[in-house]
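Hi W., the glutamic acid complex you wanted:
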Amino acid sequence: MRKIRTRFAPSPTGFLHIGGIRTALYNYLLAKKYNGDFILRIEDTDQNRFVPEAQDYIVNTLKWLGIEPNEGVCFGEGDFGPYIQSQRKSIYEKYAELLVEKGFAYYAFDTDKELEEMHVRLSKSNVTTPQYNYAVRNFMKNSLVLPKSEVESRIANGEPYVIRFKINQGEVVRFKDIIRGWIKVDTSTLDDKVLLKSDKMASYHLASVVDDYLMKISHIIRGEEWLPSAPLHVLLYRAFGWEGEMPKFVHLPLLLKPNGKGKLSKRDTLDEGLTIFPFSFFDKNSNKEITGFREKGFLREAILNAISLLGWSPGSNRELFSLDELINIFSLDRLQKSGSKFNIKKFEWFNHQHIINTPNSELFKYLKEYSNENRDKLNKVCDLVKERVYFTTDLYDNAKYFFKRPENFDKANLSEDNIKFSIGWIENFMSLIKDKPLEFECLHDFLKNLLEKDNLKFVDIMPTFRLIIFGKISGPDVIKSIIILGIDEVYERINNFKNYIL
Ligand code: GLU
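Structure:
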């Protein structure tokens, strides 16, 4: 069997978000499942749209998520480098010339103005999508039309030209996509795409096909937006005589906005405040800081798990998976055809579940200055608070009051009367449990019975109790908190609170 070699081939034209992460993840999972190679290739042939910080952002994202390529840019050079396309310019030029030689491509000398005129002319004659194709090329300035001697002299004189791929009319390109099955495209609908630009840099199409071939890529897993390019790529493989080694195609369904209307994009972050980027950054276009998953308090395991299910199904109702488990069960035949809606609430739910499943010792690092406190106490605090938090950032906010007394009190809408009455009741309760063993069941039953006896409900007293302990009316279970803090500390906090409000 052919060695599985997948590639993540982003263009550094912007900051990577979950759409790209999903592509990287599926490529990673397939490669790891079959002990293959996962490659990072940077496709920067479009220098006009180049964003300098984008490459580091991609590399750091893959590192943070732990889906690291074993070959490629910043991840160790294999035998197939360089892995940045702008450094491979001369390779592509050679292959473009080869296609001209074989009669599959041609030189085109048309200026921008002439191309523009062609567009205007075709639009006027009601051509809906004017394009440089089999019908149009005969009226343009290219080596299929001009005499050989003129072509040679134009080139010798240093006149700028591009190399275009010659697409024949009325043929059918048939190829298989693993998700979509057999696809047939009439070549008359395709245009003669530029393979080599006038600065001798390859276009995306040429660079991508040449690199996938030279880098021995076995599977191309990429977004659905590249599906229309696939017929051209297949024709390129054929023209080069590489069809036998053509990678398998997998075009992933679109990631949709939460309402299902359209593709998820940066705008959804700006308009709806959705988190879709791995790390925070300042967006120069909108002049806004965009918050990333990491800064928001998402665990990488949760992000990977949530993203894995956006377009793939494990074949059961189970939803929670570690990265290793995903590697084990991933399979291309359960990739879905229809678009997946992004649901931030679901991401938060995954984060909550993964926080609960994370060993406490790993969560300690989120407790900042308290992470070196007594281990036993840290464990108890983590056990208690992790059940309630959805973000790692909230771990600290919930845990800090087990290590320091609150200094401010947010009474919210509690009435003075309720607070006064509750303090008296709480003091009585504390004096009654003073000599009891600090055990949850026993104290909890005692509290419940005492409330019942006094015809009270939890909600009558607990907000004030929490206000005393945590400085706010919500928080972890009161009895469990008393057990961790100890009776004396709770007394201290009661006095502290009384001093504050009196
Ligand atoms: N460079 C393309 C992108 O930015 C990738 C296309 C491909 O995977 O072939 O999405």
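DSSP finds 20 helices and 14 strands in the chain.

W.
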